[in-house]
Amino acid sequence: MVEDSANMKTESALAKLPKSPGFWKETWHRFRKRKMAMLALVYVILMAIVAIFSPAIVGTKPVIASYKGDIYFPCLGYYSPRWEAVFTKDKFRKVYPKNLKEKDPDSWAIWPLVFNDPHRRLEENEWPGRPKNPQNGPPSSDNFFGTDKGRVDVFAQVVHGTRTALLVGFVSMGIASLIGISMGAMAGFFGGWVDIIISRIIEVVMCIPTLILILALIAVIEQPEIWHMMIVIGVTGWTGIARLTRAEFLKLKQMEYVAAARVLGVPQFRIIYKYLLPNALAPVLVPITFGIAAAILIESGLSYLGFGAPPPNPSWGKLLQLGRQSYQNWWLILFPGLSIFVTVLAYNLIGEGLQEATDPRLREGGSRE
Questions:
Q1: What pLDDT, on the 0 to 100 scale, is given for residue 284?
Q2: What gap in Å lies between CA 109 and CA 306, rounded to an integer?
Q3: Which DSSP letter does residue 272 get?
Q4: Phi, psi at 134, each rounded to 5°
Q5: Are 315 and 159 in contact (CB under 8 A)?
Q6: Which of the four pLDDT bands, split at 50, 70 and 90, describes residue 110?
Q7: Backbone angles phi, psi at 70, to 5 degrees
Q8: Which long-range contacts (CB under 8 A, 24 or more apart) does 150-154 make?
Q9: Is residue 369 scored above 50 in pLDDT?
Q10: 34, 157, 325, 360: which could join 314 in a potential S-S bond, CB 3.0 to 4.6 Å?
C-alpha cells in the first residue's frame, strides 16, 4: 500500500514537470532574441509581399476590371502575357484607362496604388491629367525614384525588380538545396565507394566558376532566359550544402536510435529521410541563407555587365548599368544600389542569427556574455 502511494506521488510529480521544448522551438526562441536578425526577417517577408503583389502596387494595368460583362485581372499580364489575351485581341496596346471606356462604357476597374509601368514610358494624358514621363527626370511626386533615359519610371522598375531578385535567390538555392542535401545524405549515410564517388564529384563541381559557366551558356543559347541563370547557379552552388549534410550524417548515423531502427528492420531510405534528415537540417539552413544572398549578387552583377535577365524583366543591376553611363543621374545608382545592399545584408543577418541559434558553441558563448 505504501509502495502504491509512493508510485502515485512519483507519477503525479512527473506529470507536473514542464515538457521539454523541441529543438526547432528552442532555436526559434533563441533566434527571436537577436533583434537585428528578426528585423532582417521582417524585411525579407515584406520584400516577398512586395514581389508577389508588385502588379497591384505599381503598374498601368487594372488589378480587377469588368469588361463586356466579364471580370478580368489584367495586372497578371506582368507575370504572363496570356492573361491579357482578350485585351490584346481588342487592340488595347497596353493602354487601359482610355480604351476601357471607349470600348465598353459600362466597364469599371480597380487600379494599382501607383500608376506607372516598369516596361515602358508613360505618355501624355495616358492617365487623365498626368504628364508624360520626362527623360532622365529626377525624383518627383509623379516619379518617386525618377526616370531613366528611356523615360521609364525607376520606382516601378525597383518594385518589379524585387520579383526578379527574390526569384533568382529562392529558385537557384532551392535547386542547390535539393541536390546538395540528397548527395550529402547518401555520401554520409552509405559511406564507402558511394562516399568516395560523391566526394570526387563535389571537388570537381567546386572547381567550376559559376560566372564563367553562365557567360558560356549565354554565348551558346540563342535566346537565354532568367531560368537558365537560376539553373546554373543552383547546379554549381550545392557543394557547401552537400559537405555540411555529409558531415552531419556521418555523426548522426552512429546514434543509438539509428541502430535501433536498423535492428527493427526500418528501410534505409526511411531512416535517412525520417530519422536523420530532420536532425541534420539545422546547420544546413545557414549556407542556404547565405547562398540566397550570393545568388542575388550574382544576378545583379551579371545584369550590371549586360548579361543578366533578358527584357522585359526589370532588374536592379540593369538600373545600375544605366546609372554608370551618366553619374549625374544619381537616382539610377542610389535606389537600386540601396535595394541590393539592404536585401543582401538582411539575408546575411538572418544567416548569422541562425548560425548563433543552432550552434551549441556559439549559444554557450552568447550565454556567458
A1: 85
A2: 37
A3: I
A4: -75, 160
A5: no
A6: very high
A7: -120, 155
A8: 150/121, 151/121, 151/122, 152/117, 152/118, 152/119, 152/120, 152/121, 153/58, 153/116, 153/117, 153/118, 153/122, 154/319, 154/331, 154/332, 154/335, 154/336
A9: no
A10: 157
Please check the confidence at residue 162 and state whether its pLDDT lies above 70: yes
Q: Give which of 60, 53, 54, 56 is closest to 132, Cα–Cα.
A: 60
Residues in the chain: 369
Look at residue 252 and tell me whether its pLDDT is greater than 50.
Answer: yes
Amino acid at 78: Y
Residues 364 and 369: their CA atoms lie apart, in Å, by 9
| Residue 117 amino acid letter | D
- Beta-carbon contacts of residue 231 (< 8 Å; ≥ 6 apart): 172, 175
Dig out the grid coordinates for 116 from the structure: 506607372
Give burial (CB, 10 Å; 0-12/13-18/19+) of 293.
Answer: buried
- The DSSP symbol for 82 reads G
Query: End-to-end CA distance of the chain, in Å?
Result: 52
DSSP per-residue letters across 93-140? TT-HHHHHHHH-TT-EEE--SEE--SSSPPPTTSSTTPPPPPTTPPS-
List phi, psi (to 5°) of 333: -100, -40
> What local confidence, expressed as pLDDT, does residue 320 receive?
87
3-state secondary structure 302-314: HHHHCCCCCCCCC
Q: Is 65 exposed, middle or buried (0-12, 13-18, 19+ CB in 10 A)?
A: buried
Coil, helix or strand at residue 149 = coil
Strands in the chain per DSSP E? 58-59, 64-67, 70-72, 108-110, 114-115
Sheet arrangement for strand 70-72: 70-72, 64-67, 108-110
Mean per-residue pLDDT over the chain, rounded: 84
**Ordered structural domains, the chain, with CATH:** 61-111 (no CATH), 155-368 (1.10.3720.10)
